[in-house]
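Record pair follows.
FIRST:
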Amino acid sequence: MSVEPRKVVDEGIALRAVGPDSLLARLSGPSDLKGLSAAEITQLAEEVRTAIIATTAVTGGHLGPSLGVVELTIALHHIMSSPVDRIVFDTGHQAYPHKLLTGRLARFGSLRQLGGIGGFPRRSESPHDVFDGGHAGTGISIGQGLALARDVRGSSEKIAVIVGDAALMSGLSLEALNDIGHRQTKMLIVLNDNEMSISPTVGAISTYLSKVKLSGTWRDSKSRYDRIVGAIPLIGQTLVRFSKSFRRSVISFAQEPGRLFEDLGITYVGVLDGHNRVQMEEAFTSAFNMPGPVIVHVRTQKGRGYRPAEADPITFHGAALPKMEVGVATDSYGKAGAVPVAPAPKKPNYTSAFAAELVAAAADDRRIVAITAGMPTGTGLDTFAKAYPDRFYDVGIAEQHAVAAATGIAMGGGRPVVAIYSTFMQRAWDQIVHDACQNDQPVLLGVDRAGLVGEDGTSHQGMFTLTAQRQIPRLVIASPKDEQELRALVRTALAQDHPFALHYPRDSVEGVPVRDPKPIPVGKAETLAEGTDIVIVGFGPIVQRGIRVAERLRSSGLSVGVVNAIWASPIDDELYRRLGRSTTLIVTLEESVAAGGFGGAVVESLAADQAATGQPVRATILSIGIPAGAFVDHGSVSDLRTLIGIDEAGIERQIRAVWEARRPS
């Protein structure tokens, strides 16, 4: 069912932007950095930024984060020896400079396109890519695992992890830091602070203490002092305790952001200028010579070197960027850059429709509160925050906490709504099962980006959540065929008393006429058209594709019905069992993994009916969805749907093939 990947952009965009004679073009790998002068490295940094801006102006992508870590990435590669030494990017959306420094300039113009360079580190692309990232908060644990494996082998490679300030506060990161401090794992953690989430302490005392703490003199002298003084009879240990307390107080006074890490047993250094390569290299080199773990806190600027991104880091974070015109204006360094131009008006998407209905519902019900995990803009809940700031909670990158806290709010009489991308909802699996569903609390889970999301690739496709959630008792699961039904399902969820998962894609809405969003009966599907030869049953907006495919099949003289399933749990058993006895072919459609998904629910229902009644199922069942057994890589949503056969043409092709093979003679 697959098609050949097609190139949608010119792979050579980045190479042409910097020129074939540029330093970046002549770089065969990061080892070549060691032969460059300071002036050449400064020039190289400018070329890296030029390549990133030129490419993302065409392909989109995480522009701001990557521009912010150019000097940081160069500094690490300059003093390390990748791929023997390991550089782990937590999340990985800031890895564009790393990709360019590790030999991928020629193909960088294919960034995030079908068959092209990935937007996150990918081990299949390069030995320099240590870990297939995409989700925040995983990098420190991965880095520690690499360091522990190194220590077991008795080798000496350096391990560095780059983690953002927001990801550092995720539960997984804190668990890893606690273990690293306990085990004194030798590794470097670079805290990339670009969101002002951690208050900086910048000044002479902070800079001085950073240098002192990394010096051998400081380490040796404080250890020697503790040994000598501790040996004094009667008062020695008291003096040692006083000395340690005093040192902690001085460090806490001068470097308050680092107190947490120091208490965990991790040496903290910072705050350093994340665009001063020499300063960072000195700190990193000293950190690698320390016997235990070190956190170096650096302050970087999102969008560094591109004035529009510096001024608006949220919009230019990525992955869908404003339209950019290359070569019109200059950036803050006086180099030719790109400027945003007014984009064409976009149709509202399902996310905005969900958020708007939630805001409307909250006007009449003060019990409604909204929660998100570090994604207020992406989930559309920034509009709720503006309307009802006292009822909005952004808990940061802590999906587990978001769902558990929502359960507590529901127990307290509230009506919590938790909006999280489908791919990140996976992280809250235990809380959905154990907290919300086991306790049967009315938590509304807004499963945003359900289905294919496109260019962000394997880590972000929302393809597994439905299959997993369908197994959970008490969880009502629904997905609309259009935005007006989405509005009605929001009202339905808020009007009932059980946990409720509402799945919706990132797609633009259908543009159907506005209607009153009245609650609809739970578990009852909607028959859109009757048919006896074939009945297409779709779950979610893929119903729209099913409607159009049915029209084409009818042109061949077939009797084709269409059902809007609406519900994946509970399903409309009565309807599907009737169709199983009266229809030749039932086709289920879903933009989710087909194995164990909505189609599986229909098959299970028919099998249970046959076992209970002894009446045979007449219909052949064809379940069309995302094939199981493989991750879906990056590319535009339309290209990916074509590639795996769930676009209109692919759906029609599969139905006709089965019909021709199974139809009555």
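SECOND:
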Amino acid sequence: MFSKILIANRGEIAVRIIKTCRRMGIATVAVYSEADAASLAVEMADESVFIGAAPAAQSYLLGDRIIAAAAETGAQAIHPGFGFLSENAKFARLCARSGIIFIGPNAAAIEAMGDKIRSKAFAAEAGVAVVPGHDGEIADTPQARLISEDIGFPVMIKASAGGGGKGIRVAWNARDVEEGFAAVRAEAKAAFGDDRIFIEKFVERPRHIEIQVLGDRHGHIVHLFERECSIQRRNQKVIEEAPSPLLDEATRAAMGAQAVALAKAVNYDSAGTVEFVAGQDRSFYFLEMNTRLQVEHPVTELIAGVDLVEQMIRVAAGEPLGFAQNDLAINGWAIESRIYAEDPYRKFLPSIGRLRRYQPPAEGDRGGFTVRNDTGVREGDEISMFYDPMIAKLCVWAPDRKGAVKGMARALEEFHIEGVSDNTPFLSAVMDQARFASGELSTDYIADEFAEGFHDLAATPWQRDLIAAVACGMHRVLAQRAMRNGGGPALPAKRTRWMVAVGKARRDVELSGEGAALKVQFTGEDRAVTLETLDWRPGSALFHGRLDGRPFTAKVAPAAEGFIIRHGATKAKVMVLTPASADLHQRLPAKIPEDTSRFVVSPMPGLVVSFEVAAGEEVKEGQVLCVVEAMKMQNIIRAERDGVIKAIGAEPGDSVAADDVLAEFA
């Protein structure tokens, strides 16, 4: 077994690998860029080596520097994690020539399966059903358009070396091809150092199901069942689960057998994933094989009871697998939610900045469900524009799917982040949806369910009661504190009748109870609720409690004359007022929003790649104005109306913040 391993990656996967190495008694070396000098992975590793500037092309993609770091520290093996050099056959061979073990499959398998064009041809030759498409490389946009028209729209434009949702566009017409082909090529070059592109038919309303395989260097290969990854946004997985609610035992066995057969055909000898696109009728086609560890591997570990990182290390060290296919079985259900630094209210655009607060839910057995949180950040860390915006992978295991969904909803309630926007409200919304609970999924799920973009959901009756009760509880705590400190009269603390205002809605309440319980009687509604565990303190962003015995966590913050209270995917501005004050608030005039329609602002922080218009130019609605790159993704900014450009607010190469003015209409 190895005594020291270098991890050629960053963020949460580097931390994940370090944890397994510690348990196995293996020392670790972290490599880091300028942006990651103070990262959690660097802090946790036994040694660390600086390898270059923040952009991946100047650090994590430089194989020679990583090999030099391994030689310098005496590391016997390199684990590449996922992304970066994990599917780079040249790097695997460079490791071998340098006398260093690559913890991953052999280079020949990487070449056969890691190249999406070659893997599709190889699978077809092996008798595996594949999605119709163009098998060769595509030289330029005109050729891409001709091929797309021949296949028939919609088509998917994909980077040959792609992965992690990068370098992919769905084209519904010729214009999408003309714009998307160049963008995909640029993303592929920046993210993978390889700008080769291929095109295949896009299967409508598909499900994305993948089989985890694991092989050793003694000819043994098994599969560890499936994961469903159908909840996707811009072809980037957002929620994954294992097993899949679609598959029956017969389909599961057929897909597993096909994945193992394909892996055996290329002499596969590590952890890898065979991905399929499946129809609602359980028909399936080979999509691609990822010759590396997957981002979503924790859900497989949770249902199979196997540490995949440990198995990769043992296989690389020459050990045979310690189990056969018959030894493996599915235990329970697991769901993973990817916590991203992005703004779900602004079309999920990336967010960067410092994590002023980072409070994940407690890990371990939570009574009925188990929480696991894989992350590479701490409170105070910076979310950079140079890398993927994923903050954490929140995972929940339960004996069945219903329990896993319920557990994930509770864990998301408790996940608190400040300093950057995050997608937990959106993830909570999905957990609350009847469609998700039913398992009726597809890769169109987000587009179907949030066609107009994401907005907070309307409060359920229970949430309306919860928000009112929490506001009353907070108001009482503040009033009692003011009275104790001599900062307010005794009357507010002793008053029992109040008006709870949420927007224009008013609810009369009568409060009673002391200590750990507060009874809220809704006057005129002939009913009451009881709020328990009033241990909230002013300044705390989380309110933990039970409403009529049901546990919850609400996110709370002060606001003018009241509070902002969020529970799951619903949020409200709440005031607790006397009847006279409530009447006065009803009379206040509505605030007229400022007209900003003449400005084109950057929807996210990023780097201006290009400007397609100039001052004085007349533009039409939908015309491309500029391209802004953030988190390795190129975002096309279009004109939202006809008009004449009065001024340009940035130039190619400029860094811009969210809401910075890019252009102004006359």
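COMMENT: The chain has 18 helices and 39 strands.
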